[in-house]
Amino acid sequence: MLLDLDFDVSTTGLSPADVPADTYHRIAQFLYREACLLDERRYDDWQSLWTSDGMYWMPRVVGQQSPFDHISLFWEDRMLRDVRIRRLEHPRNWSQQPPTRSVRLVGGVQVEGVDAGGNLVVHSVFQMTEWRKRQPRQLAGRYTHKLAAEGDSWRIRMKRVDLVNCDDAHDVFEVFV
Amino acid sequence: MSYTEEQLAAMVRGDSVHRGVYTDPAIFDLEMQRIYGRAWVYVGHESQVPKTGDYHTTRVGDQDVLMVRAADGNVHVLYNRCPHKGAKLVADGEGCVGKFFRCPYHAWTFKLDGSHLGVPLKQGLEGTSYDPADPSFSMRRLARVDAYRGFVFASQSKEGPALVDFLGGVRSSIDNLCDRSPVGEVEVAGGIFRVMQRSNWKVFYENLHDTMHARVTHESSYAAARDEAKEMGEMPLELHIMDGNGEPYEFWEKLELRAYDNGHGYMEGIFNPGAAERDPVSRAHFDTLTTAYGEERAREILGMNRHNTVIYGSGSPHTVFQQFRVIRPIAVDRTLIEIQTFRCKGAPDGVFKRAMMYANVINSPSSNVMPDDIELYNRCQEGNATRGGEWVSMHRYHGSDRSDADGMVSVNGTSELPMRNQFRAWKTYMEAGATAAGAATGDSTCC
Questions:
Q1: Which of A163, A75, A72, A170 is nearest to B191 (CA)?
Q2: d(Cα B274, Cα B305) in Å, to the nearest integer?
Q3: What is the reported pLDDT for B399?
Q4: Which candidate, B147, B202, B258, places its Cα nearest to that of B429?
Q5: How far is the C-alpha of B441 from the C-alpha of B39, rounded, in Å?
Q6: Complex-level ipTM
């Protein structure tokens, strides 16, 4: 599953996307809603935003091209996201007592184009404040979403999170960023 | 406070240790001199500096050091310091300096073995005691550097056992890791995780062979993996490696724990990915090794199902999934873990992909397993800082440890033998350091 080497993570060589103002507005709303679901730990609702083959990716180094020949801070398919959610909700998750609180600010939404698989590629920037056990943490970086059209909305086929300090020594990441 | 030899000895009993060994900054400073100033410490793997001039920076105890590849192919380990004003010669991280080091402050230059090459406008130093041949005008080498099958270790002391003797019984773990390559060589590949923990370095070492914590600490992760597998109707390897922690106590009691001198040891595997003659990756690996070594030897190599190994002062190699968690003490309550992943040269690519999957799922900062360990280390640190009691217990099966030819072996897999063994080494280092003060660090006239 994690070794599905055919999964297309590339976000270059895109064809132009013709996005009217109303559509752009709805894309931005979609990203804000996704961030809100994570902040509120509404994980089942968040999972339902994804395609069944969607991949969540947080590279370890700047400009990382592939999750297959290099380690990543996260590289999770639906199964591993499910496991994380189950663990976060388990009563004996010692390192989530108290739970991580978070709030995300998402902005700078830019529609980049359409990839070979027909997914809309959207960039945005984020700032996330986390707090747990008297320890605040600031995370910031760039989101890249690959969105698959579904009806008048979208599903997430890939979410790439490029932290500004991805190559730092880190504390643990328990919740999705 | 300062400690006498008697006070240090009194902090370690056969069955318990004083909480101060985890919480007192003065003890930490002594450890940096007497353990990390004396022992062989893993610096890095030769593959991290493949070409002439390549360097890799890291720490040996509280010292910033670098590993560098010289033109003659030798790897040197040097303190990262210019002898002029003391500036660090290279920035943290890795890179290539080319044919020589050049200090970015006043352009003093050094050969790749650290020896003095030159200074600009040399006439200004004529008539002074400046002497290019005097080692104090060169970058200082660590007192001893040696490698075992590509794994580079350095010691800050001229005295002490040779590297192979220091490693003793845990050499077999490094051997097994390398033998999993059909050409007998591994290389660091695929990037390195770095995780910072708010706890004393010794807690991590103790936890590596602590079989009693697995079911308790990791309940949320193995329960999540099991629930997911149940729903899916199968258990892929990603979930299997999380599931192992949930084995019942009877399982852990049957495991064998080995303890060697200098604090080293290992424990048997808790699950067997090699059992997968049904698994295509293992089968391809087995075929490759059979071609290289013959079937019997290939079976022996892949059949060594070893879980965590402890190389005290360096960290924990994991042979089956080609990882090395390098443990770097930063402060009395702060420890950095560098997680390296190895590629077995010549083995099928799937073997490396599987190792990266293991790193991603188990050793990443986003692992579902590790945060609960780290939380408990942190709670030990916080609890031991209170006046709630003076002693930390290591009583399990105390008095029953069996000696054999090259070390000790537990009578029961839940024994606290590994912790007792680590503190036996700790005590030896700390006491010997007190009597041979100064022998360990600083005043060395080597180079």
A1: A72
A2: 8
A3: 94
A4: B202
A5: 11
A6: 0.94
CB contact under 8 Å between A174 and B366, yes or no, is yes
Please give the average per-residue pLDDT across B5-25, as a whole number: 96
Phi-psi label, residue A148: left if phi above 0, alpha if psi -120 to 50, beta otherwise: beta
Rounded to whole angstroms, what are the CA distances from B35 to B131, B147, B408? 34, 19, 22
> Among partner residues B221, B353, B371, which is closest to A172 by beta-carbon distance?
B371
Closest CA to B52 of B85, B20, B95, B110: B95
The two structure tokens encoding residue B217: 């600490």
Cβ contact A54:A78 at 8 Å: yes
Output the six-digit token pair for A71.
């380690």
Q: How many CB pairs under 8 A join A and B?
A: 108
Give percent of chain A above pLDDT 90.
92
Residues contacting B203, CB < 8 A, separation 6+: B22, B335, B377, B380, B381
Interface test mutation site (partner B, options A86, A88, A173, max chain B beta carbons within 10 A): A86
* CA atoms within a 13 Å half-sphere pointing along the CA-CB vector of B206: 24
Residue B388 is encoded by which pair of tokens? 């709630």
Note the pTM of the prediction, 2 decimals: 0.94
Count other Cβ atoms within 10 Å, centred on residue B100: 14
DSSP calls for B201-250: HHHHHHHHT-TTSHHHHTHHHHHHHHHHHHHHTS--HHHHHHHGGG--HH
d(CA B320, CA B309) in angstroms, rounded, equals 11
- pLDDT confidence of residue B275: 55
CA distance B380 to B389: 12
Helix, strand, coil shares of chain A as percentages rounded to 5? Answer: 20, 40, 40
Which position has the higher pLDDT, B358 or B269? B358
Which of B354, B368, B370, B382 is most worth mutating to test chain A (most A CB atoms within 10 A of its CB)?
A: B368
Q: Is the pLDDT score of B446 beyond 80?
A: no
How many residues are there in chain A? Answer: 177
- Kindly report the backbone phi and psi dihedral angles of residue B247, in degrees, each rounded to the nearest multiple of 5, phi listed first: -60, 150
Structure tokens at B223: 């329960």
